[in-house]
Amino acid sequence: QQANIGVTGLAVMGRNLARNLARHGYTVAVHNRTGARTRALVEEFGGEGAFVPAGSAAEFVASLERPRRVVVMVKAGAPTDAVVEEFASLLEPGDILVDGGNAHFLDTRRREAALRERGLHFVGAGISGGEEGALHGPSIMPGGSAESWASLRPLLESIAARVDGVPCTTHIGPDGAGHFVKMVHNGIEYADMQLIAESYDLLRNAGGLGPAELAEVFRTWNTGRLDSYLVEITADILAYSDPGTGRPFVDVVLDQAEQKGTGRWTVQTALDLGAPVNGIAEAVFARSTSGHAVLRKAARDLPGPPRTPVADPAGFADKVEQALYASKIVAYAQGFDEIAAGSAEYGWDIDLGATAAIWRGGCIIRAEFLDRIRAAYASDPKTPTLLTTPDFAEALAGAQEAWRDVVATAVRQGIPVPGFAAALAYYDSLRARRLPAALVQAQRDYFGAHTYHRTDKEGTFHTLWAESPRKEVPIGTPP
Ligand code: NDP
């Protein structure tokens, strides 16, 4: 029997993706470098659908209907290059090779260009939702050619998560667009997690609430506008006690957050694109800070202010909810701004509203909130920022007093809130009629003759700072 699609790389992600496809009625060829994994999959889950196990890459490729569709789910980096090359050499023009791993979008662009030369379609597909998502319905962000999307679409739509009957997958754009969007998704995820963690820290250390009370607070928030997977699991974690010690679980976990790289890539890429994602950057740096045992040990006895619990914990919790919501709007606005910048730079023509729509289910940042973003772009697809779209502008206006109050409380009590503070600084920077950048530019002209523009006339100018009297000279011709 010819298989409709093949999956090579059968660790947790590949195995679950293959099972998901088989459960939806597709015949799935399965292959793994180490054959034991292939055999284990068929032994354990063979009853779930039609699998065609292959012992070798050649056997695997021969079992596929044409044009062949091969999904590679192996370790990102050099292993992906090796596996892509191995299979590309066995495929024929018109065949489709999908990389579902967490590749850097620039690697995907390189691989896509190389395979296009050989007549093959290379699809860099971001897949979010972890192993559970891969099995029960992930959010899938494929890049690549329109032809490859036409061929993959029915399969991806049937295995993806669904919200209101709409599958959480869409064609993101050419070459690296899918992996770019997955990268920014993860950057936003970092920010969202950091903001939730800051809320917890404030409510615990300034609000005086214990983990069990906090679980209730997050559970309540999860019934409102903050309704999301991340808030839901936060409530669950805070309610959980360590079975061994009986202590709150959150108190026995070492306070060092690790990272695998997609958050860092989001920030590195944003720097290259000139996209100001300070909220996301602070979330990545907060993880680095937490993991920097040497710095933290050296500085642990530096003085801070005395901590006095707030007078009205319930009222404070309400303010923190507002600060969290406002900061979350900023973090997502920054992520979408980066996607818009990447789309412009690489000519991808990414539909921002459609991107928000496919994040409503399956992925880690899934939330009701994303439907508001979808709606905001639906009514104003060209908006330069989500902050000024009516729904979010109103929410920010309503929250800003509490947001400022919460940041001020944190500062006074010596509780670090890099995410909240960065988001607020971004909001105030965009609002400002005049930024002190005027002074920075004047400094640049003073020490480096970097020139400046004036508010009152066209052209480029330089002041001869060393001369007496100082004189302004026009540089070049005004546009
Ligand atoms: P791993 O990233 O742990 O990769 C293990 C798989 O890669 C095994 O099948 C292994 O084969 C194969 N492999 C490694 N090196 C080679 C090589 N040189 N040649 C051939 N095969 C090789 O597996 P995961 O399932 O966790 O992840 C797969 C991909 O999905 C990764 O790119 C990951 O970043 C991405 N991803 C993972 C998520 C998760 O929650 N885990 C979520 C979203 C994406 P063997 O058995 O022979 O060692």
TrEMBL record:
Domain 6-phosphogluconate dehydrogenase C-terminal: from-to ranges: 178-466
Catalytic activity: 6-phospho-D-gluconate + NADP(+) = D-ribulose 5-phosphate + CO2 + NADPH
TM spans (from-to): none
SMART domains cross-referenced by the UniProt entry: 6PGD
SUPFAM superfamilies hit by this protein: 6-phosphogluconate dehydrogenase C-terminal domain-like, NAD(P)-binding Rossmann-fold domains
UniProt keyword Oxidoreductase, yes or no: yes
Domain of life: Bacteria
Enzyme Commission number(s): 1.1.1.44
Keyword annotations from UniProtKB, A to Z: Gluconate utilization, NADP, Oxidoreductase, Pentose shunt
Pathway(s) annotated for this protein in UniProt: Carbohydrate degradation; pentose phosphate pathway; D-ribulose 5-phosphate from D-glucose 6-phosphate (oxidative stage): step 3/3
Entry annotation: catalytic residues: 182 (proton acceptor), 189 (proton donor)
Record-listed substrate binding positions: 102, 128-130, 185-186, 190, 260, 287, 444, 450
GO molecular function: NADP binding; phosphogluconate dehydrogenase (decarboxylating) activity
Quaternary structure and partners: Homodimer.
Family: Belongs to the 6-phosphogluconate dehydrogenase family.
Protein name: 6-phosphogluconate dehydrogenase, decarboxylating
UniProt source species: Actinomadura logoneensis
